């Protein structure tokens, strides 16, 4: 080999590496475009409807949708903030009976879909439920005319159900904020005469306010996106308006316009949440601050603190699980129903495929962006988080209409080529559901992948590349073995969210196609909790696995410190 060939060989190797990195970068851009496509589709459909019914919506139903949505979001956000911050303050600052167990028990309502909590609360408090039966037997009342009992299926009832299911978002952030605060601030406040209430209002709450605001913003986003609770409680919101305008009025453009309004509200809440997180800091000395010493509460005070923490846990977890378990035990034949078996199989199939594809696409995109080493590709990554901020109903509108048009074109082309009609290959199968899940939960996998790549020392893949490994070879030989724990957690978290997703599944599923979530909703909507309870309990069981992972990640490190 000549000296000139020796000199050109490294250049060719560098050119090949640059070309490989370019391919990864292009792939990352295509994935980002696919994830952002439904959002862009909704915006385009909203501004280009086939039949513009916006003036009709503004004059009739839209004010009611907006009012109910705003009241629910603000009410749920405020109640969840009070409950979550109060519980976090008690857990972080005091020791009382059962405080160690309640530290992670307060997370368990995250495993309960809000719509399951709604069914359980109505069943528990309705006329034929155990509460009113006990009241009639205890006071000798013969009928509902003999006494007054508050209505359950109201806007206020929806606020209670949603807050009970969503307060852990506030609890997690607020508890971390309280624990990070230095003990010196509280000692100074005590020296100046502040009591327990003063410590909370004058020291703890101001320092933790950004965390509480961030959690409340997440709660409000989830409330705006909810469909199961509001539809069961007959509260007309923007999300139910999408279903009504599309399915009952047959106007996809009007549904897209309402979906666009939901997007605007959600993005405003995202901006608020980002602003709160940006401010989530305080300045301290270079030394590690001395943590706050938890004060022991004894006697009545201790048991009062225990009771206060047990209230949200009971409403958010014990009540739904207890009601569903009671109905499931009373109807054992529902466990062997063919419909339940099919729903379980559909759930495992769609959720499993979506989880694998979502995590694989996230790994590919994050790795492709990192290979370029440039700022421009990194600008794509925030856009892939839009799907998680968008409610499932909005994504369904943005996906189904373009996919239906593509389906018809594919079917027409296949018919022209072969003379046979293949039917609807995308919207006629579960493919649309899988795609919606990928877009909806891509941000979870992307965040996990980005954090995992950042923990790998750059010297390791550089050594692999110097030994002749390609970019793909370095990913397989170095990154993936070191990231397998994070990848497994991301797969599980995405799968759990897929299992719980209701509105996108209801709008995109083929005819007579059920998942555990849709079966629970449909049976419970018909007041048939006996058949709904097994599916609900299976959804809860899957959710508990994710909560266990969350508790392990958030509680174990704090105890280790």
Account of the 3D structure:
With 561 residues, this protein is mostly helical. It has a domain at 352-513: Orthogonal Bundle (MetI-like fold), CATH 1.10.3720.10. 77% of the residues lie in helices and 1% in strands. It is built from 23 helices and 2 strands. The chain has helices at 3-47, 54-59, 62-93, 99-105, 114-125, 130-139, 155-180, 183-191, 196-225, 228-232, 238-248, 252-278, 299-330, 338-372, 375-378, 386-389, 392-418, 431-454, 459-466, 471-500, 503-508, 516-525, 529-560, and strands spanning 94-95, 295-296. A two-stranded parallel sheet has the order 1-2. Helix 5 (114-125) crosses helix 13 (299-330) and helix 8 (183-191) packs across helix 9.
Please tag this protein with its features.
transmembrane, MetI-like fold, membrane, cell membrane, mainly alpha, 561 residues, disordered N terminus, two-stranded parallel sheet, transmembrane helix
CATH class of the domain at 352-513: Mainly Alpha
- CATH superfamily annotation of the domain at 352-513: MetI-like
Poorly predicted ranges:
3-13, 282-286, 555-561
| CATH T-level fold name of the domain at 352-513 | MetI-like fold
Order of H and E elements: HHHEHHHHHHHHHEHHHHHHHHHHH
Number of strands: 2
Question: Gap between N and C termini, in Å?
Answer: 61 Å
Instruction: Report helical residue fraction.
Output: over 70%
Strand arrangement in the largest pleated sheet: 1-2
Number of helices, where a helix is a run of at least 4 consecutive DSSP H or I residues: 23
Percentage of residues in strands: under 5%
CATH architecture assignment of the domain at 352-513: Orthogonal Bundle
Radius of gyration from the alpha-carbon trace, in angstroms: 26 Å
Secondary structure class reads mainly alpha
Described by the principal axes of the CA atoms, the overall outline is: globular
Q: Characterize the main sheet.
A: 2 strands, parallel
pLDDT averaged residue by residue: 82
